[in-house]
Amino acid sequence: MTLDPVQLATFQAVIEHGSFDAAARMLHVTPSAVSQRIKALEQVVGQVLVRRARPCVPTGAGRPLVRLGGQLALLEAEALDAARGALSGSARTRVAVVVNADSLDGWFLPALTALPDVDFDLRTDDEGHTAELLRDGTVMAAVTTDRVAVQGCRVHRLGAMRYLAVAAPECHTAWFAGRELSAAFAAAPMIRFNRKDTLQHRFARTVTRRDIDPPTHFVPASASFTAAIRLGLGWGLIPEASARTDIAAGRLVDLAGGHHLDVPLYWQYWRLESPVLSALTAAVRAAAADALR
C-alpha cells in the first residue's frame, strides 16, 4: 500500500487548520478538492480518518498519519535546505511544540533563540497532558511530566520545577494566621490555573494528609494567576523563582515554610534524524539545566 503524498499533506492541513475550508485556503484549492482527497485517503486506509467536528480532529486511525505527515514535511524541508546549500539561502522550517504555561512563561523561550531560522508553533497545556499532542501527531516535541516515551519518540529528563504555596499578606491574615494548616487550606479560597491543574490539591494533601475542596477561582494565564494571588483573591502555587522574589519584597507570604512541591519535567520529541530537532533538544536541555532543579 502506497500513501499519496498530496492526500497526506491535505489531511495534515485539515487537522492543523481545523476545517476543510481553512485547509483549502491554505493549499489554494477548493473545499471540494480537499474533501475528495480525504475520501480517497480514507478509502486507501480503509478507516475514517477525520472526525468532522469544530475543529476537525483525527480519529484513532488518523493520528499516526498526522504524525507521518508532519515528519515527512520536516524531513523534506531539511533535505531541500541541504540540497540548495548556500546558493539560495536557508529555507525556514516550522516546528510545533507544546509546553506547560509556567515553563513557557519562565525558562523555555530563551532556548528558542538558538534556532533563528525556525518558525515555532507553540501550544500550551497542563504538563500532565502535553504528551497527548505528541500521541495524536499535532506537535513534534513536548515538555511533559510523562517519563515514559510516547511511541516513536525519545525522552530526556530536564529537571524539576519547584513550587511554593503563597498568599498575599491580607489573605494570610484572614485565613491562615493562628490556624492549623489543615483547617486553613480546607477553608481558604484557592487559585487554580484551569480544571486540569491539580498542583494545589496535591500540595495541600502532602501537607495536611487530607483532601480539600475549598472555594476556587480559575485564572488561566501565568501572569494573571500570580497577579490574582498578589491581589488577595486566594492562595496558590507559583514557581520558586517568582515566589522567592515576592516573599522577599513582602508582597507574598510562604504559607508552609519548609514545604514545597517539585514537578519533574521531561522533554519528548519525534525519533527522527533531524538536525532541527537535535539542535532544539540541545538548546532546551541547556536552558533547563540552568533553570530547573
TrEMBL record:
GO terms for molecular function: DNA binding; DNA-binding transcription factor activity. NCBIfam families: argP, PRK03635.1, PRK13348.1. The lineage of its organism: Bacteria, Bacillati, Actinomycetota, Actinomycetes, Micromonosporales. The keyword Transferase does not apply. It comes from Couchioplanes caeruleus subsp. caeruleus. The keyword Transcription applies. This is Transcriptional regulator ArgP. Residues 1-59 form the HTH lysR-type domain. InterPro entries: ArgP (IPR017685), LTTR (IPR050176), LysR_HTH_N (IPR000847), LysR_subst-bd (IPR005119), WH-like_DNA-bd_sf (IPR036388), WH_DNA-bd_sf (IPR036390). Belongs to the LysR transcriptional regulatory family. It comes from the Bacteria. Keywords: Activator, DNA-binding, Transcription, Transcription regulation. Pfam families: HTH_1, LysR_substrate.
